[in-house]
Specification:
With about 350 residues, the chain is of the alpha/beta class. It contains 17 helices and 11 strands. A 6-stranded mixed beta sheet has the order 4-3-5-6-11-10, with helices on both faces. A 5-stranded parallel beta sheet has the order 2-1-7-8-9. Helix 1 runs parallel beside helix 12 and helix 2 packs parallel to helix 17. The model has no long low-confidence stretch (mean pLDDT about 95).
Length: about 350
């Protein structure tokens, strides 16, 4: 396919791999933040092209995976109410809460609907004034503008029957939390290109400077990732710690200013709990005061819900780069995509799902 195949050229991939092998002189551990990058790495065998000195760890960059159990439980409680039409993207329907998932709730009679845009939920609220329409707003900075637009649109239309259950998280605080951990082994990061297409690269510069780690903004195709690894290793070998932009065809240093302004209007920065990791200060988005009436937690009285994590699932360790999926005793046995114990096996961007699909035969 034009404009895609050129980033999947096997000969060029081998050239990048050879350049990395010639460059590296010692061991380096690099974390790709985004689950989409993890899947490309496993699908195309990028980890197998690298010299043994370069180790890749998989970070917390899957929005489905880091959505806490209690958010799913709140969603299930709200969706079970007869007056509610509960809307979500399809990838959230099979993520397990403590006692089921949204797909099971739908099978049991709840009005749970898959939408392809949060604006679809706004349209449902307008066409069903006798129902309470709730949209599950999760994700990183990538999905925040569209969700902010939906809230702003509902406000302009004067809709009183539309709310959002918000579980937005932010990438830079998660990177800092990993770097601050006593057991941290990460020497450099591949940052998610789609997040930076919205937010730009500038907010990573203080992190690179303070913690002396290279951060390379990287795309998702095999050559993007290999070039990003090369750029990161080159910095490490030269003793540099800078923010570089491999994904310049899509990312500007200052990001998308209108989208950033929309996020600033509708949301405010708050502490946020991450599934399997715990609470990270200033790592999430909640609705700003002018839009508080659209907060589903407050409207349905579920804000205080708190649920313990599964003791068997080690997804938290995987999301922090402390374990890899095959190190979990349940991987591929008690935990499969058909019967998942945790979100990292459910999500199409989850590390466990990537290993199960692409690397079980290794």
């Amino acid at each position: 396919m034009k404009f895609v195949d050129e980033y999947r050229d096997p000969a060029l991939a081998e050239q990048f791999a050879q350049a990395i092998r010639q460059l590296v002189t010692r061991g380096w551990t690099i974390m790709e933040v985004c689950g989409g990058q993890t899947h490309s790495i496993m699908k195309y065998g990028i980890d197998q092209l690298l010299p043994s000195q370069v180790v890749l760890l998989h970070g917390p960059g899957c929005p489905v995976c880091v959505t806490p159990v209690e958010v799913l439980d709140k969603a299930l409680e709200i969706a079970s109410r007869p007056e509610v039409i509960f809307c979500s993207f399809g990838d959230m329907l099979r993520v397990p809460g403590s006692s089921g998932d949204l797909l099971s709730a739908k099978a049991a009679g709840a009005d749970v609907r898959i939408v392809y845009s949060p604006l679809d939920a706004v349209k449902l609220a307008k066409s069903h004034p006798d129902k309470q329409v709730v949209f599950l707003a999760v994700g990183f900075e990538t999905t925040a503008p569209a969700n902010a637009l939906a809230v702003e649109q509902a406000s302009r239309m004067g809709l009183d029957n539309f709310t959002v259950l918000v579980s937005h998280v932010l990438v830079p605080p998660a990177i800092e939390a990993i770097l601050q951990a006593p057991e941290n082994q990460v020497n450099g990061f591949l940052a998610a290109g789609h997040v930076c297409a919205v937010m730009g690269c500038e907010e990573y510069e203080p992190i690179a400077a303070q913690y002396r780690v290279p951060i390379v903004v990287t795309g998702f195709e095999p050559l993007d990732i290999l070039q990003g690894i090369y750029m990161c290793v080159k910095q490490l070998e030269e003793g540099r710690a800078e923010v570089e932009n491999q994904y310049a065809r899509s990312v500007r240093p200052t990001g998308n200013q209108p989208a950033r302004e929309l996020i600033r209007r509708v949301f405010r920065v708050i502490p946020r709990k991450w599934r399997g990791i715990g609470e990270i200060p200033a790592s999430g988005l909640g609705l700003a005061e002018p839009y508080a009436k659209y907060d589903a937690e407050q409207r349905f009285g579920v804000a205080a819900t708190s649920v313990p994590e599964s003791s068997e699932c080690i997804s938290g360790l995987i999301l922090q780069g402390r374990k890899k999926p095959p190190e979990c005793p349940a991987f591929g046995k008690r935990c499969t995509p058909e019967q998942p114990l945790g979100a990292t096996m459910v999500s199409t961007e989850g590390a466990c799902a990537a290993y199960y699909r692409y690397a079980r035969g290794r």
